[in-house]
């Protein structure tokens, strides 16, 4: 006979209080991303930046260092990153729509921003949060270059090529189809060489949720 | 102070009829109607006691609650002496470093600049403008025009140029009146032949370039040429990163190349566009200076071996930042010099060199276009003042409503407590 688990109310309360205090004492962006330029260390964690980034850190600016000196924190302006300028020949830029600045920073140097990304000339449809905002990599696109950047038309993508399935898999698919529907599959099953689905965190989470829904929890 | 400014406006209004080409200290640009404070002063006032507002704001900050932009705008509107200007500066700083910093209103900034000009605190306005990151002062075009004009009126072209630099950093050269005023300030400053350090040259070149890109005639092209030349000089001396860091400039190398492209464009254009002669002279000087300094650098490299440790480190750092592309640019310098000579002779033979100096052509442009450019600005400004007033009223209304609701809730809570106690 298992003894009934004791109701530890005080421990429960302590856990909640500890969680609340941890939430309240989260470091602000300006504390987390502060940097000592002499020793290239972050004072908050004590970690050093990678060596290949040192030249960039000395020469370039963070996004919010640029935004702090602009009207309305640069909402509606375009910003590129130096790494994109080097890697891609087509224009890649973010257009800022919303800014939440960390007001505890002395020079309003940190914060979060949201905007519309245009990678290699292809503009996305929805507003996303800018990532790598704290990297010393950002450049403002001056107004006289904005039109040049926006005018770029990317080449149309080549059509997706199809390839027949490997023979064993093809045989399995045909057999399954015959078992399920009773008729022979009319057309040859084709494997597209370009996967439609982006394999990221959201995709796998959705898959798990679907599986849970269809199969239910064990027991 | 307001009375003396008014008197100056009146006396100068008489002067503007005689178009004096001499550039004495009393030369001014905007008409009395533009700098008139009546339109601004005649809006409905909202008198508040500054001490009360200050204590409210201090209490709100101490309790870590956000201060509304309405309180700050009331504080700035009700400034009535020079000391209060300093206090307002402190509160603007605090507001900028609070969660509501995005909501600093346009009319607050405009009224802050107006009050500074009224109480003779122009340097304060310039200081807050230069430290706009800390104070959040981003004036609109009309306010910029007023500030530049007040400096030009007093012949203080250096400060006028610093204001123009701020306009350039905001890339706010949309109105023709702003462009004319800034070009006048820049041209007059250059005419005084000041000794410029490299960062100052960069700022001057950048302002000339960004202003000239928006202006499409002789003056604009001359400004573009000068700007590109100065920026090319900085690029040669310090490297491309020193040119565009912190400024809205293109990061591509070859500013001297772009300057020569401007000249080519003018030479091959069929219209009546010309380039001012002294712009070409200045570009010539820049190229000569660069080529002579590069010659002396290469010959003097051996003799600098005995310099102290610090200077060696500095030189080494400079050489590290000079990667191959910079050296490639420097190698192109003799090419640029020869191309410049060809293009210059081409322009002179094509009759496209304007003998009037840059400054004189800017002054001529100002005389022609400024009056025409001012009228739409004024109308826009009056409409904007109305819109600001409407928004102000709306904010006051909203504040009243929230206050009433809060009081109502407090009373309800009190009644409930009293009822609970009675039981």
What does this structure look like?
The complex is a heterodimer of chains A (219) and B (423). Chain A has eight helices and eight strands, in the order ααααβαβββββαβαβα. Chain A is α+β, with helices and mostly antiparallel strands and 219 residues long. In chain A, strands 1, 2, 3, 4, 5 and 6 form a six-stranded antiparallel β-sheet that branches. The longest helix of chain A has 16 residues, at 9-24. Chain B is an all-alpha fold and 423 residues long. Chain B contains 21 helices and two strands. Chain B has a two-stranded parallel sheet. In chain B, 37% of the residues are buried. Chains A and B meet through α6 of A and α9 of B.
What keyword list fits this structure?
heterodimer; A: 219 residues; alpha+beta; six-stranded antiparallel sheet; two-stranded antiparallel ribbon; 8 helices; 16% strand; flat; B: 423 residues; mainly alpha; two-stranded parallel sheet; 21 helices; 74% helix
**Cα-atom radius of gyration of chain A:** 26 Å
In whole angstroms, how far apart are the ends of chain B?
67 Å
Number of strands of chain A: 8
Low-confidence stretches of chain A at least 5 residues in length (pLDDT < 50)? none
Poorly predicted runs of chain B = 9-27, 300-312
The computed structural class of chain A is alpha+beta
Order of helices and strands of chain A: HHHHEHEEEEEHEHEH
Main beta sheet strand tally, sense and closure of chain B:
2 strands, parallel
What is the makeup of the main sheet of chain A?
6 strands, antiparallel
Rg of chain B from C-alpha positions?
A: 27 Å
The multimeric state of the shown protein is: heterodimer
Strand content of chain A: 15-25%
Concise summary:
The complex is a heterodimer of chains A (219) and B (423). Chain A has 219 residues and is α+β, with helices and mostly antiparallel strands.
């Amino acid at each position: 006979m298992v003894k009934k688990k004791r109701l530890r109310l005080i421990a429960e309360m302590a856990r909640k209080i500890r969680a609340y205090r941890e939430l309240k004492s989260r470091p602000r962006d300006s504390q987390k991303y502060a940097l000592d330029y002499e020793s290239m260390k972050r004072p908050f964690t004590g970690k050093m930046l990678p060596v290949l980034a040192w030249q960039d850190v000395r020469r370039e600016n963070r996004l919010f260092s640029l935004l702090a000196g602009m009207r309305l924190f640069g909402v509606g302006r375009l910003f590129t990153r130096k790494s994109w300028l080097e890697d891609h020949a087509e224009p890649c830029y973010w257009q800022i729509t919303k800014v939440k600045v960390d007001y505890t920073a002395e020079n309003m140097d940190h914060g979060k921003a949201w905007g519309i990304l245009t990678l290699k000339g292809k503009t996305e449809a929805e507003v996303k949060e800018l990532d790598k905002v704290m990297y010393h990599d950002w450049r403002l696109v001056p107004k006289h270059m904005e039109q040049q950047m926006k005018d770029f038309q990317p080449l149309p993508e080549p059509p997706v090529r199809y390839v027949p399935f490997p023979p064993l898999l093809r045989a399995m698919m045909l057999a399954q189809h015959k078992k399920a529907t009773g008729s022979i599959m009319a057309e040859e099953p084709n494997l597209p060489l370009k996967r439609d689905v982006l394999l990221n965190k959201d995709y796998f989470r959705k898959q798990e949720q679907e599986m849970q829904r269809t199969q239910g929890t064990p027991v | 102070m307001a009375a003396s400014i008014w008197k100056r406006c009146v006396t100068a209004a008489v002067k503007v009829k005689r178009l004096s080409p001499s550039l004495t200290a009393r030369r001014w640009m905007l008409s009395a109607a533009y700098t008139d404070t009546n339109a601004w002063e005649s809006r409905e006032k909202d008198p508040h006691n500054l001490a009360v507002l200050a204590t409210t704001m201090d209490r709100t900050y101490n309790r870590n609650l956000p201060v509304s932009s309405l309180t700050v705008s009331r504080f700035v509107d009700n400034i009535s002496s020079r000391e209060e200007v300093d206090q307002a500066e402190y509160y603007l700083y605090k507001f900028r470093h609070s969660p509501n910093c995005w909501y600093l209103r346009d009319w607050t900034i405009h009224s802050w600049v107006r009050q500074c000009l009224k109480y003779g605190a122009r340097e304060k306005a310039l200081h807050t403008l230069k430290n706009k990151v800390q104070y959040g002062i981003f004036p609109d075009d009309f306010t910029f025009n007023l500030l530049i004009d007040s400096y030009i009126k007093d012949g203080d072209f250096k400060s006028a140029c610093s204001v123009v630099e701020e306009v350039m950093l905001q890339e706010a050269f949309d109105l023709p009146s702003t462009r004319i005023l800034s070009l006048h300030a820049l041209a007059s400053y250059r005419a005084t032949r000041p000794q410029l350090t490299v960062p100052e040259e960069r700022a001057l070149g950048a302002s000339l370039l960004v202003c000239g890109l928006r202006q499409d005639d002789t003056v604009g092209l001359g400004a573009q040429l000068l700007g590109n030349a100065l920026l090319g000089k900085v690029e040669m001396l310090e490297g491309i990163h020193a040119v565009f860091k912190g400024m809205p400039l293109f990061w591509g190398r070859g500013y001297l190349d772009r300057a020569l492209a401007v000249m080519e464009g003018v030479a091959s254009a069929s219209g009546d566009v010309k380039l001012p002669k002294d712009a070409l002279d200045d570009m010539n000087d820049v190229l000569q200076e660069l080529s002579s300094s590069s010659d002396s650098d290469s010959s003097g490299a051996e003799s600098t071996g005995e310099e102290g440790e610090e200077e060696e480190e500095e030189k080494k750092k400079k050489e590290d930042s000079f990667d191959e592309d910079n050296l490639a640019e420097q190698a192109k310098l003799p090419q640029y010099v020869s191309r410049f000579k060809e293009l210059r002779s081409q322009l002179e033979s094509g009759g496209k060199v304007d003998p009037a100096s840059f400054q004189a052509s800017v002054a001529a442009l100002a005389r022609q276009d400024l009056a025409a450019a001012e009228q739409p600005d004024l109308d826009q400004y009056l409409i904007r003042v109305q819109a600001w007033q409407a928004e102000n009223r709306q904010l006051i209304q909203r504040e009243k409503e929230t206050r009433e609701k809060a009081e109502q809730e407090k009373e309800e809570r009190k009644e409930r407590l009293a009822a609970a106690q009675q039981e």
